User: What shape does this take?
Amino acid sequence: MQTAMVDLNDSEDRVHEEGSRASVDLVEQAVRGDRLAFDRLVEPHLVVALGAARLITGNESDAADAVQDALLSSWQALDRLRDPKVFAAWFRRIVIRSATRFVRRRGHLVELNLEIETPDAPDSLEREFDLRQLGRAFGRLDQKDRILLTLHHYWCLPVAESAQILGLPEGTVRSRVHHALRRLRAGYDAEVRL
Amino acid sequence: MSDHFEQAVERALARAAQVDRSMVSEAHAAITALPDRRSGFGLRLRRSIPSLSLPRRPRSVALAGAALVVVAVVAVSMFGAPRPQPRPVGTSSPAASLATQSPSSSASPGVTPMPSAIHTDPAYRETLPVLLTGKNLAFAGWSPDGSRYAIVDDATDSAVMHLFDRSGTEIGSVSGVGMISFAWLDANRFVFLSNRGNGSGGVATFLGRVGSSDYMELGQYDMLVPGPSGAIALTVPGTGDPSVSTKHQYVVVSADGSVSKPRDGEPLAWSRDGTMLAVYHATALAPEPSGVQAEPIGSLEVVRSTGESVASTHKLSFTDPYGAAFSPDGALVAFLYDAQPLNGTPQIAILEIGSGHVTIVPESGPLTWASDDQLLFAYTSTDYGKTPAGIRAWSAKTGLVTSYGPGDTVGASGQGTVVSGSDTTHVFTWTVTTGASTRTGTFSVGYSLGTPTLISDSDWSPDGSSLVLTVGDYQMGTPLDAVLFRP
Assistant: This one.
């Protein structure tokens, strides 16, 4: 299977490198109904959005559907975006909520099965931690913990943006990330002991 | 948490999030096939059938409940100057309940100017008593009579629940293999969700007793909703999706430890006296005018602990209500809901239990009741910071929203004590109102000691006189302190 490995800094920050003016122009064109402009607008975020949706929903099929719903939602709601310069954050919020809806519909208490391929020659970090077992422990976290860790440790969003997405004070987000990591560590340790 | 572990998490998530290139191609194809904007029809290229057969796991809940939110403390300074209070606003008709003051409209009637600065008096400082220090502390609630409280430390493989009396003396402990959530039934008995610890990997709900290591299994439930008076609701595994026949259900654990038969609904919050419970009923799927994934919508109902209905928002439907909180006298219940499922804009709704009238406040933020008729919330901007944050107050008397003060954090006992402030500046103000008199002070810290300090959990005692907080720089992996604050 051909997969896409994400370099977050390379993909999402490209928007900033190209200048916010370009993205504002694309938003304005998309609001007028230009699908090509919309495609160019979301393209830097697509792979990461699909990855985040996969982490939250736990499978590729739901992740694909969730992102397609998010695309449709954002396309339809573009004229409600008050500041085109913040399109990326706005789109991320819609993706997260769309993925959350899929989990909620399916039943929020599911054990995910995330497959992680490990290299033949692991480095020191991978000798210290078995990433497959870490993935299994992540899959057993509840939905809220998965979302928090996806925002914080996969999407690497600043706490302020995570707080916006989740509607929580920043301090609460920091606290919950800490506790989610703690639960992940406990789950991982349990995996290792088995 | 070690840096290596967090690096491993990031690497594991990056690998687990790898997606098939065909998914990216499908997404681009979906964009090409997007309908005309506002056409009302959506086109989805593929639709999977949700799997309902996966094994279910319990959802952990915040141990401390929804009392104060966030903050930072190590030392306290006090001063005598009263802080500005929300100015009463003129009477208004019921229709005015939909009115909201703009945060920028400082000249508008009814908006109290924010204080320009919060002072601290370094001449008077006191150190809060540290109850417990540990790597992973979380507050786990006061007993209904306020005589005891519990703090969990699960830094080790087996979580330990430390039990204290109200003076701060540790009186015992409870060990569990991965304790997930905890609630007091009375001063001697408690209910908790935990791994069974017998190798089955399952999670169950147990009834325990102070001073005993024997726990009675009550059954398998997902989530525990504790009430301040000892009332406890437990959710039965379910999807809450009305399109399938697995609606949410819950049971109530009564004072004698017996468990009721399952009732329909998702329990959200208990009234202060434990006689009423706010429950959400997902009753239908929202229409899909834009072709977007439909969401369950439904009503919020207030029921007695015995199950009889008291009030409902049946004339208005809501999607995914959360953060519900009863006013101290139990006459109102406020909650947040997603006003626009498309972009998740939250709003506040308040159900008047006597009349069934629902007031919508088009703002949002974590809710806390300062009194029977004043609801406080730390305003959460939905425009990405363009509107400044601050503490706001909704008055049940006037139906208006006014500015209460600066900050991003607020917590109220409901009995005259309010703590508010900023998680950024680490300066917090407390106000105790007793009759006509008001005492005010501030506490700050963290940076003054060279390290940022944040509160991770907190909860008021039932009489509103004490606040237990767990504080520390948990991001640095340094130990946390549990402290007792009596304003």
